[in-house]
């Protein structure tokens, strides 16, 4: 027992508390949905889930999970290469690869794991990775696990990317890799993949896209940011999650050329040393990917909701990111104000989260709103009305 260690932990917690940086978890007692209930009897409209298409509580997917348990059992009790590969895991890999127009795919327990298992087996000391400054924590951690030289470019700035590409080229790298989020998770900015691919072509660089917030919703067929930006076939590696538009359940994947996937199966540590995806979820994911082909109506509803919310919020004077995505940050400049704002919204039955350092840069606290196809027009208008009245009360808008 080291007293010092436990004292050090308490000091860290106190510091977070003093600086208003402690994150609290609300306990939800209903399934994930637009209307949820939180312990204490609070019924709220949920504006902070990644449930973009409203499939987290979809009855067809729930039926598939039940069927999956009947047909394939509950636990798999193994990693993939020992005795954890059922035919459904192979079917899902083929399906997600086909859906994304990639050669092959490999499953992980989450996209966090996928990103952490991606870089180390493929890249080393001789390589240079150029990473967008707003990349998700899992890309950052994945890159940290490999020994490649790292360059950071200002988010979505092609001028800055070009500078970093030049630096990497001069350093004589074996491979130059550009790693971006298809959509930045805190700002909802869609990567300029068309321009990125042109630069990649010029510099003979590889392009890696984490499309966790793009898959299922962006592009005419919901394939994601590469479809939206018209660069299908030009991205080398795509990672993504089943935990957002595709049903909201833990699970992730990497899609790439066959030989890349084969090497990852041999060497990627979160794949080799962690349990296989739960069979019932795999069965439901197969259905979810199938459903993507027929859910244009849900995507249309989502984008109508997004447009309505964005237009109304701008018209009443809020500062939001200039994008078309369902992630909509309301910039507030002050941590305390953003927390107060969130609390006032909660009292009105609107459930959103405020985000502050270290999740977002110190000077950019915000409330992040996320829109779903399941929101009704009334839900959106009520949220806008609530933002307006609290915004006036707190002197944020006139
Ligand atoms: C861009 C991005 N990548 C990866 C992840 C992690 O996904 P998962 O929940 O499947 O681990 C997230 C989730 O927050 C994300 O926003």
TrEMBL record:
Database matches in CDD domains: KBL_like
Keyword tags: Acyltransferase, Ligase, Pyridoxal phosphate, Transferase
Organism name: Candidatus Providencia siddallii
Protein's name in the database: 2-amino-3-ketobutyrate coenzyme A ligase
Domain of life: Bacteria
E.C. numbers: 2.3.1.29
PROSITE patterns cross-referenced by the UniProt entry: AA_TRANSFER_CLASS_2 (PS00599)
Cofactor(s) the protein requires to work: pyridoxal 5'-phosphate
The UniProt record lists the keyword GTP-binding: no
Family: Belongs to the class-II pyridoxal-phosphate-dependent aminotransferase family.
Span of domain Aminotransferase class I/classII large: 44-386
InterPro entries in UniProt: 2am3keto_CoA_ligase, Aminotrans_II_pyridoxalP_BS, Aminotransferase_I/II_large, AON_synthase_class-II, PyrdxlP-dep_Trfase, PyrdxlP-dep_Trfase_major, PyrdxlP-dep_Trfase_small
Molecular-function GO term, any one: glycine C-acetyltransferase activity
